[in-house]
Specification:
single chain, about 500 residues, 19 helices
Length: about 500
């Protein structure tokens, strides 16, 4: 299994690197967006974007997760016509769903804005961002295709490089137009530019990575359609209810006598906290095709080993991120403006919740891999009801911190239920002596970092704490690699390894 473990770690680490670049780029573009729009309009923008994201999730119909096993199987069988046909089927179905749901939301934009006492720009931003949402859905479908053919990380990297450059160019152009005296409505013009940018990105990626065309006479068997939608619909309902939690949190925060500035503060805290599960997410992407094969062949021991490796490595890297963001969070938030210093308390709550959720393992993805998605819908429904109830109770006394506490409790509860369901179905779980030992060590190192901050002050405490935490994480990751019988040379990507070999051969000659 060492070669399998090496593949999971190698592809996962490459994914973490590319996604890390995207996250840093996202923080930079968020800073530029806040500077251009201002704190109030940024809050209006992220609220409208949350509603658009809900439309995206509904329009996706859960097809990416459902089609991935079929795409992988078609790729293994070299059935190019079926591969292209499946991708195009997903795009057409998503377009139809988006036309229905998007039109309804566009018509309801003004009533929703009136309910939230939002400025007129909210309805305009909502309508103008809907094309942006459709292209995001389509890019997700392409992402499933790229994952099936083993090109997902390259596509992701190219996508985010282009997105960052394009978004910064868009903001620079809007700034220049404003400086030259053009009277542009900031939020609507930014929304239009964002949608146009997304159109360009999608067609550039489609041109570079488009799937092979389907045969004109290709007919998909009814059994395939039933199998896909039996998996897709629970995923769609689960994702819709999950996106509904985000919309409910942001709209309730405004509705319960807060302001759109508070929504912007919450959005920034969420953006920083969402870095924590990224390592596990990328490791899980490299694990997905393998896990499906292991389950279908009945190799539960191999599935358990791969699942625990993904959990342990994701928890280790996520723990490092928690410590670094906790140490440097006040300084990072200060760069966005004085008003965003209020994001630090909810950020700490969200960091702890994200790490606790990572400790359960990629349970939701694992349930999708083994095609046991029915459990997702009731847990998502209960999670939405729990989140709304907690928000009603906690927002009036605690504001943004109350939203963070409600979200933390909900996420941990859902992960716990999924972990129990996965264990009952497959006997696979994340818990074991290595994870318990790491959790204890994390608490010790976190306590040491806190002591350093109290003793040396925020700045020097953060500097020394970073060195302590970084050294500990490197030692722990080295132990994980050795424990799974993986040589460090196996973690080097094949293309880089060949290039290094050529350099050595040339130097030796």
């Amino acid at each position: 299994m060492s070669e399998v473990d090496a593949r999971i770690l190698r592809e996962g680490l490459f994914g973490i690197t590319t996604r890390g670049f995207a996250l840093v780029a996202g923080l930079v573009t968020s800073w530029a967006t806040i500077r251009f729009l201002g704190a109030h309009e940024y809050g209006v923008f992220v609220t409208a974007l949350a509603v658009v994201n809900l439309v995206d999730v509904i329009s996706s119909l859960g097809l990416r997760g459902a089609l991935l096993p079929e795409l992988t199987a078609a790729r293994r069988a070299e059935a190019a016509a079926r591969l292209g046909g499946l991708v195009r089927m997903g795009l057409r179905l998503s377009l139809l769903a988006w036309l229905v749901v998007g039109a309804a939301v566009a018509l309801l934009g003004v009533p929703i804005g009136d309910l939230l006492d939002a400025p007129p720009e909210f309805a305009w931003a909502l309508a103008l961002l809907l094309p942006f949402g459709l292209l995001q859905v389509w890019r997700s479908q392409l992402g499933g295709y790229l994952a099936a053919i083993g090109r997902v990380q390259i596509g992701f990297f190219v996508d985010h490089v282009a997105r960052t450059v394009g978004l910064l160019a868009l903001l620079g152009g809007l700034w220049l137009a404003t400086w030259l005296g053009a009277e542009l409505p900031r939020l609507p013009s930014f929304a239009v530019g964002l949608s146009l940018l997304e159109v360009g990105l999608f067609f550039a990626i489609w041109h570079r990575f488009r799937p092979p065309p389907a045969e004109p006479t290709a007919v998909f068997p009814k059994a395939l359609t039933r199998r896909v939608f039996a998996v897709a619909l629970p995923i769609a309902l689960f994702s819709t209810l999950g996106a509904g939690r985000d919309v409910a949190a942001k709209t309730m925060l405004v509705g319960l006598e807060s302001t759109f500035v508070d929504v912007g503060v919450l959005a920034l805290a969420l953006k920083l906290a969402d870095i924590v599960p990224v390592p596990q997410t990328m490791l899980t992407q490299s694990l997905s095709p393998l896990a499906s094969n292991l389950y279908q062949t009945g190799d539960l021991a191999g599935l358990r080993r791969a699942f625990q490796l993904s959990t342990l490595a994701g928890f280790a890297l996520g723990g490092a991120i928690v410590l670094l963001v906790a140490l440097w969070g006040p300084y990072v938030l200060h760069l966005y403006g004085p008003v965003y210093a209020a994001a630090y308390p909810p950020l700490l709550v969200l960091l702890g919740a994200r790490l606790a959720a990572v400790g359960f393992g990629p349970t939701t993805s694992a349930l999708q891999m083994v095609q046991r998605t029915r459990v997702l819908v009731p847990t998502a429904g209960v999670g939405l009801a729990l989140a709304i109830g907690l928000n009603l109770a906690l927002i009036p006394p605690y504001g943004v911190v109350g939203v963070a506490i409600a979200g933390a409790i909900t996420v941990i509860a859902i992960q716990a239920v999924h972990a129990v369901a996965l264990w009952r179905i497959t006997a696979v779980h994340a818990f074991g002596p290595p994870l318990r030992a790491f959790a204890l060590a994390f608490l010790i190192v976190g306590g040491a970092d806190l002591g350093l901050v109290l003793a040396l002050g925020p700045l020097w405490g953060a500097v020394i704490g970073t060195l302590v935490s970084g050294g500990w994480i490197l030692l722990h990751l080295r132990w994980i690699v050795r424990h799974h019988g993986v040589a460090l040379g196996q973690l080097v990507p094949a293309k880089l390894k060949r290039w290094l070999d050529r350099r050595r051969a040339g130097g030796g000659a």
